[in-house]
C-alpha cells in the first residue's frame, strides 16, 4: 500500500526543522539522563497489559473504578519491584494518563505525615505506607466547605480520660467529600478536623485516621464510607472520589500530627511557631500542578500541531504553502495565519510552563529544607507564589487544551483525538487545591504586606516584589512610559520585563490605596471581599510577570557555559527558544493590553507595533512547529490519539479506531426489532 499523503506531509514538515529536536528535548526535561529515565518508565507502563487504553471510552464508572484499583495495585507492585523513587512514580502516573485511587497515597498521605509528623510518627506510619501495608488519602474537603478551612465542621474533641480524640461529623454537611481514594481503596486517611479541648476551638489540625479493617477491608464501626459517583465530562472516572461521615469515632491522641502543633495528655495545647507551617503540603500539591500543566498543554498542542499539518482544506493561497511540491492539493490548515496565531502562542506557553515548573519545585524544595531546620523566612512568599501560579497556570492550560481541540475542527470532537480525555483530566484543576478565583487573594494579601515593607523598609522587599520600589515616587511613576521606539525594541527582555513590572507595581499600589482609603481590613471578609476583582488582577499580573521572567532566565542559562550541562542548549535551539520567549511575553501583553494602556504606559503607536511584532514572530516559527512539539517527547502510548500520532497517518488511524466501536460488531443494531422496525412499519409497507 502506498504511503498516505498524511504521513508524507508530516515527514516533510520534519525536514524543515532548523534545530536538533533531541537537544531541545534534553533542555526541556533537564538533561539526557532524565529523558532516558522518563522513556524507560513510560515503556514499563506501556508494556503492561493492565494499563491498556483501548476500551477506556466505553467503561462506566463502576467498571472504571475497578480497573483503577487494578491499575493502582499494579502500579504499587512496579514501584517496589523496580525500586523506583517518587519522581519515577510521578512519571508512571503521567504515563498511565488517568487519575487513580492510589495517587494521593504517594502524593498527599505520605508527604503530609512526613512534613507534619514527629520523628516517632514518621517511624510508625511511613514504613508500612511505603510498603503499601496501609494505603492512605487526604481528607480535607467537606460537603459544606472546601476553601474555608476555619469553618470545617468535622471536629476532634480531646477525651482526656482515655487519651483519645473523638472524631465527629457534627452535621450532614460535615461529611468529607470528593476525597480521592476514599470511596473504595484506602485503609487510612489524614483528616483535617477542628480541635476542641474543654469546649475551646483551636482550629483545623491533621490526624491519621484508620478507616477500614486490614483483615476484610470493611469500614470500622462509627464510619460511613462510600463513592460520590461519576464526575463531569466522565473525568477522573477511575478515581474513587469518596465521602466519609464519622459518628463519635475514637482514635489515639498520638494520631494527631504534632511536629508543629502539640496537645499533651493533660490537654495542654502548644501552638506552632508560625500559623502557616502546615501549608507545606498545599504548597507541594500546587507546585506539582505547574509541571503537570506543562505536560498536559504540551500534549494537547502536540496532537493539534501534527493533525493541522496533515489536514488540508480549501485551495486558498497563503504566504507559506507547498503548491510547488504538491500541485493541486488543498492548503495545509497549519499554513493559515489565523490557525498559527491561535496555536503557536500555546506552544510558547507550554515551554514557559516547563521553565516555571522547574523553578517552582526548586522553591518548594528550598522551603522544605528551611522548615526542617526551623527557618520559616521563605514560607509566605512560596505559599503566595504557588497559589498565584496554580490559579493562573491551570486557568490558561485548561483553556489551551480546549482551544487545541477546537483548532482541529469537527474531528476534534471525537474521543479518539485523545484531547477529550485530556480536557476531562485537566478541567477540575481549576477548582481543586483551591478555587482559582478565591486563591488569588493569597498573592494579593502577600503583596499588600510587601507594599508596606517597601514604604517603611525598602531594603527588605523580596526579590520577586522589587518592582514595588518603582511606585515609591508617585509622580515619577505616573510619568513613566514604555521606551519602545522601533518594532525590534519589543524583542528586548529588559523592555518586556519593564512593562510587566510597571503593570504589577501600579495594580499593587492601586489595591493598597483602595484598602487604606476605604478603611478596609484584609482580615474582615465583609470589607475585603469588595476588592476580590482587584485581587484577581494583581495575582494574575504577578504570575504572568514571573512566568515571563523565568522563561527569559531559562533561555539565558541555556547559553551560559557555566550553567549545568543539563540546562544548556545548542545555539540553534537557543535561537528558537528566544523567539518562543519573545512570543510568550508579547502575546501575554497583547491579550492583557488594557492593563498596559489605561495609565498611558503604552502609546497607540506602540500597541500597533506590538501586534505587528507578534504576527512576525508567529510567522517565523512556522517551520519549527512540528519540531517544537516533537521535542516534548510524548510517545504515542501517552498521547493515545488517532489524529496526533507520530507517523501522522491521521485518517487511517481514525477509521481503524471507529471500527472498534461495539455498535459495529453487528450488521443490524441492537434495538432494531424492539424500536426501529415497529416505527417503520407503523403505517404499512413502503417499497423503495
TrEMBL record:
Pathway: Lipid metabolism; peroxisomal fatty acid beta-oxidation. One of its GO terms (molecular function) is fatty acid binding. The active site is at 433 (proton acceptor). FAD binds at residues 141, 180. The keyword Chaperone does not apply. SUPFAM superfamilies: Acyl-CoA dehydrogenase C-terminal domain-like, Acyl-CoA dehydrogenase NM domain-like. It catalyses: a 2,3-saturated acyl-CoA + O2 = a (2E)-enoyl-CoA + H2O2. Residues 279-448 form the Acyl-CoA oxidase C-alpha1 domain. It is found in: Peroxisome. GO terms for biological process: fatty acid beta-oxidation using acyl-CoA oxidase; lipid homeostasis. Residues 493-681 form the Acyl-CoA oxidase C-terminal domain. GO terms for cellular component: peroxisome. Its cofactor is FAD. Residues 20-135 form the Acyl-coenzyme A oxidase N-terminal domain. Gene3D superfamilies: Acyl-CoA dehydrogenase/oxidase, N-terminal domain, Butyryl-CoA Dehydrogenase, subunit A, domain 2, Butyryl-CoA Dehydrogenase, subunit A, domain 3. Residues 137-231 form the Acyl-CoA oxidase/dehydrogenase middle domain. It comes from the Eukaryota. Pfam families: ACOX (PF01756), ACOX_C_alpha1 (PF22924), Acyl-CoA_dh_M (PF02770), Acyl-CoA_ox_N (PF14749). Belongs to the acyl-CoA oxidase family. This is Acyl-coenzyme A oxidase. The gene is ACX5_1.
